[in-house]
Amino acid sequence: MKKCIKFVLYFIIVIFLLALITEIQIIYFGENAKPKKSDCIIVLGCRVYGSTPSPFLIWRLNKGLELYDKGYGDYIIVSGGKGPGENISEAKAMKNYLVYKGIDSSRVIMEDKSMSTMENLSNSKRVMEEKGLKTAVIVSNKYHLKRASLMAESHGIEGSYSGVFVYTYKNREITGYIREIPALWKYYLYKLFKVY
Questions:
Q1: Structure-derived torsion over alpha carbons of residues 40, 46, 49, 51, reported in degrees to the nearest 10
Q2: CA distances (Å), origin 36, targets 29, 59, 160, 171
Q3: What is the CATH number of domain 2-192?
Q4: pLDDT digits 0-9 by tens, 124-175
Q5: Domain locations in the chain?
Q6: For residues 53 and 45, is the Cβ–Cβ distance under 8 A?
Q7: What does the angle CA 33 – CA 37 – CA 41 come to, to the nearest 5 degrees?
Q8: Are 76 and 45 in contact (CB under 8 A)?
Q9: How many CA atoms lie within 13 A of 159 on its CB side?
Q10: What does pTM read for this prediction?
Q11: Which of 4, 37, 92, 193 has its CA 20 to 30 A from that of 55?
């Protein structure tokens, strides 16, 4: 009985330490990500309410717009398909927002088929190849950037990163940091067993 309790205790300690190390990696990457001048900016999709970008998506779009205005990319690739409860694709909602904000529509390239981060990046890579674009700044929430960077690298995207933290939704951001731990573990396991 004592051996069983010791095993469970050690197991809990190991899991806790692994989670702590993973969280440190996630936070460190997100806080230290710096954009580099590139051929394009990729804004990863997020929830759309009907036809309206969610607050998280608006922050990502505003960051993409800021980078574009500062000359970090000549094009913005908006990436995201149409999910449940969404009247239009995330990419279409994102393009509408950016054009409304004054960007020439010819500078906003839609990728509207993806349903996951992995598909966001694989499909955006295809768009980049079609347009002859070699480098990208990838924009998402800070907690999402570590995993996005691994996926981008696996698809051969030469990328730098820029993240947002939505202060008005601090609790949801904290939840995102916690949920990203198992999401990153899942990615590592999938890569290990070549599921992707």
A1: 20
A2: 15, 19, 6, 30
A3: 3.40.50.620
A4: 999 999 999 999 999 999 999 999 999 999 999 999 999 999 999 999 999 9
A5: 2-192
A6: no
A7: 75
A8: no
A9: 28
A10: 0.91
A11: 37
